[in-house]
Amino acid sequence: MINLAMQRKLATGECLDVLTMGKEIKPGVYELNSFVDDVDYCDSKKELWIWSIGKEYKTGRIVASINADLYQNPEYECLWLR
User: Fold this and answer.
1) What are the residues whose beta carbons fall under 8 Å from the beta carbon of 39, sequence distance 6 or more?
2) N or C: which end of the chain has fewer CB within 10 A?
């Protein structure tokens, strides 16, 4: 892993890998099985940080994104913002 900060945070439990708790549903967007507060999130395979996580009002599914597009989005309750 090139990103040493990401590697350290994953090793100490300060960061969760979205690939272990869900699946990528389109490039840079992941559907998660659960949400944990007070930790960081990343895609360790692509070495990308997650920037926003939201709960979709219509379906209740939890979605993570490498962009801040779930913040102030009328279709999502923002659960987490980097």
Assistant:
1) 13, 14, 15, 16
2) N
Chain length of the chain: 82
- The whole-angstrom separation of Cα 39 and Cα 18 is 12
- Report the predicted TM-score, pTM, of the whole model to 2 decimal places: 0.94
* pLDDT tens string 43-61: 999 999 999 999 999 999 9
Q: Which amino acid is at 47?
A: E
Q: DSSP for the chain, please give it.
A: ---HHHHHHHHHTSEEEGGGSEEEEETTEEEES---SSSEEEETTTTEE--EEEEETTT--EEEESSSTTTT-TTEEEEEE-
Output the pLDDT for position 12: 97
Please state, in angstroms and rounded to a whole number, the distance separating the CA atoms of residues 13 and 64: 18
